[in-house]
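Sequence decides. Our protein:
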Amino acid sequence: MNEIILLKLGELVLKGLNRRSFEDKLQANIHRRLHPYGQFRVYTRQSATYVEPKDDRCDVLGAYEALKKVFGIAGLSLARPCEKDKDAILATAKEFLDAELRSAKSFKVETKRADKTFPMTSIQLSQYVGGELHEAYDNLEVDVHHPELTVYIEVRDYAAYVHAQAQPGAGGLPVGINGRAVSLLSGGIDSPVASWMIAKRGVALDMVHFFSYPYTSPEAKDKVLELARLLTPWTGRLTVHVVPFTAIQEELRRSCPEELFTVLMRRFMMRIAQEVANRCGAKALVTGECLGQVASQTMEALRCTGAVVDLPVLRPCIGMDKEEIVLHPPAPPPAAHARRGGGRRTGLGRRRHGEGRRGRHRAGAGQPVNQPPNSKPFRRRYFMHDLSEFMDLLCGRFDNREQFEQRQAAGDTSFPFARHVNTLCNQKISGLPADFPGLFLLEESYYTVQGRTNASPHLFCFTQEADGILLTSYDLPRGLDPKTLSYETMPELPFDQLSPSQKFTPALYRFQDGGWVGGSESMFSPVMKFTLFERFFPDRLEVSESMEREGKRVFGYDVPLIYKRTN
C-alpha cells in the first residue's frame, strides 16, 4: 500500500461544540496547500487527520513537507497502512522502516490501540513486534528509555499504521478561523514575525506597505514582496496593498516639528491601514511594535498612534526583546531576520517604503520558498547589504587634517589632530558561529594635542537592527596594551571570552539625509555621562564626543571632528 500522512491536531481537539468548524477549516486549508502535489483524500477520525493519495501520481513527500507549514497541525508522520493483523504489522515495519532499523543501534516499539476490538493489548503487540525485530536485526539492542529509533504502531478503525518519530507541525489554529486582519509590513523582521504569530492564531491576513518613491528604490518594494512570498507557505495567499506615501511624508516634513514627525507619520499610516481593513473586511490591525524598542514605541507613543483608529491593534511582539524576535519561532517552522523590523530610512530622514503608485500584489503560495522570513540565511541574503554599505563608509584610514589646519590657522592650539584606522577583524575572532550576523571592527584612534599623542583603540561589533545599524562596544581582553594595539599586533581573540561593555550604551545609526546618523548616551558612573553623536557620509565622517561630570563638560569640543579618508 502507498504511504499516507497522519496529522495530529493538537489544540483543535480541545474545542467543544464548534470543533467541527475548526476541522472543516483545516481540511479546506490542507486541500488548497496540497493542490500542486496531486489529488489527496483528507478526512478526520479519532482526533487524527488522514491524508491519502488518490493515485500513484501524487507527490507524497512534497505534500509532507508542505504540511509542516500548515497552521492547525501539531505533528505529522509519514506512515504505511496495513491490515490489522500482527504479522502484517510486523512485515510492514520491516519493509517500511528497513533502512532505519539497519542503521540504528537501539530501538523500542510503542503501540497505540484506538480500536479496542483488536485482540492484542498495546503492550502485547509492542512485545511481539519488538521481539521479532530484535531477532531479525543483529545490530539492534532494546532500550526503552533512550532509544535511537522508536517504531510507532497505531491500530485505528480502518487499518493499522506503522511510522517512525512524528515531526512537529506548525501548531496553532487553521488560518481564517478567527477572521481577517491587516498587517503593516515593512522591510524588517518585526512585522513579518508579528504576521506569522497572528496567522498562527487562525487569522487570515492582508498586508499594507507604505512606499516613498523616489526616496526608496524599486528594490525596496521587491524585498517587501519577497518577504510576503516567504510568509505564504504558512499564511496562504496574501494580498500586499502598496500605498504611495511620498506626498504625505514630504508635507509632514515641511509642516510639523521634527520631534513629532515619526509619531504623526505613524498616525497617518494607521489611518490608511484602517481604511484598507474596512475595504477588505478585516476586523483588526497587526503591527510589529515592541514596547520601548525605539522612541516611537513607548507607551505614550503607542497610545497616540493607536488613538486614530477604531479597530483593535494586535501587537504580538509587544513584550519580546529583539533577540527573542530574531530567534522566534524556532525551526522547523521558521527559525529568525529579514531586517530586524522597521525598514530602511529615506532621504527625508524616515523609513524607506514601497513604490510610487498604489498597487495590489499577490504573493502566491505555490512559489518555491526554502527560507522562512526570519531565518538567518534570509537575513543575510536580503539585508546585509545595508550593513555592508555602512562598513564601506567606516572602514579605512581617516584624519581631520583639513579641519585641524584651519583651526590652527585661526589660533586654536588646543584643537586635536585626530586619526582613525578602522579595520574589520572577524578573521581574528576565533570560534565565531558560522551564521554570526555581526561584523567586528578594530578602531585605532590617535589624538595629538600640542605635540602629545594618545592612542585609544576600541573593539566594536556592528549588526543590522530594527531601524538601522547597531554599534555595540566590546571590552578589550586583559593583557592587550592600548598604546601598541593595532590590527597588525592584534592576537587571535576567542569569541566566547569577549563581552559587551557594561558602560557603553549601544549606538543606533539610521539612514538619513544621504548618510548614517546615530549615537548614544552612556553613564560611565553615577556622575559621569558620555555622549556620542556621529554622521557618516561618503566624503566624510563627523564625530562628536563629550564627557560630563555632574553636568559640566570635562572633555569634548564645540564642533564635531570631521574626518576625511586618506587611503
About this structure: Residues 261-280 form the longest helix (20 residues). The first strand starts at residue 4 and ends at 8.
